[in-house]
Design goal:
heterodimer; A: 108 residues; six-stranded mixed β-sheet; 57% strand; B: 111 residues; four-stranded antiparallel β-sheet; 0% helix
Chain lengths: 108, 111
């Protein structure tokens, strides 16, 4: 049974700083997903990582996947307030199973 | 394309009442699923369907029923609502094992 763990669960950052969110999963996952959720809103897809070593970047966010370590990371570069949201990673064995999310707050 | 739509947006039920949360998609995806989101718990999979006529249980299926008579629709039924079912419910659609597109959610309160 696939289990997904994220850490940290809460992250308070200053604008301009860098940080990384970690996502570990317990067993083989055929791909790894990152989603963003703003308060009171639905989930928005950020990245889908398909294979070992995959790296994807969009603006200040970069996601990577290490299937041997069963680890994905979401790196935030030079954070800005607009990145404040909850970020979810999810693994898949057919069904998409999510971690508990990381609530990111970027302060000036 | 509307993508994934859900109705209602908000609902208040009394304990023991029944209701159906509606979910529809216009993307012709075979795979649809229902999640519930509770504070500190992330999103948990309730039921899913890999195509019309095929449904299966997810992580937290108790108290919920689903059916899939068409590709487009995947309703979630609460037969006898309980306060523990107070949550935000999201429906999603996509290819099996691929990116899932989420609806706007239904916020349900059971008193």
């Amino acid at each position: 049974e696939l289990k997904v763990e994220q850490n940290p669960l809460f992250l308070s950052m200053q604008e301009g700083k860098n940080y990384t969110i970690y996502c570990n999963y317990s067993t083989t996952s055929d791909r790894l997903y990152w989603y963003r959720q703003d308060p009171g809103k639905s989930l928005e897809s950020l990245f889908v990582l398909l294979s070992n070593g995959a790296v994807k970047q969009e603006g200040r966010l970069m996601a990577s996947l290490d299937t041997k370590a069963r680890l994905s990371t979401l790196h935030i570069t030079a954070a800005v307030h607009d990145l404040s949201a909850t970020y979810f990673c999810g693994g898949s064995q057919g069904n998409l199973i999510f971690g508990k999310g990381t609530k990111l707050s970027v302060k000036p | 394309n509307a993508g994934v739509t859900q109705t209602p947006k908000f609902q208040v039920l009394k304990t023991g009442q029944s209701m159906t949360l509606q979910c529809a998609q216009d993307m012709n995806h075979e795979y649809m699923s229902w999640y519930r989101q509770d504070p500190g718990m992330g999103l948990r999979l309730i039921h899913y369907s890999v195509g019309a006529g095929i449904t299966d249980q997810g992580e937290v299926p108790n108290g919920y029923n689903v059916s899939r008579s068409t590709t487009e629709d995947f309703p979630l039924r609460l037969l006898s609502a309980a306060p523990s079912q107070t949550s935000v419910y999201f429906c999603a659609a996509g290819g099996s094992g691929t990116e899932q597109y989420f609806g706007p959610g239904t916020r349900l309160t059971v008193t």
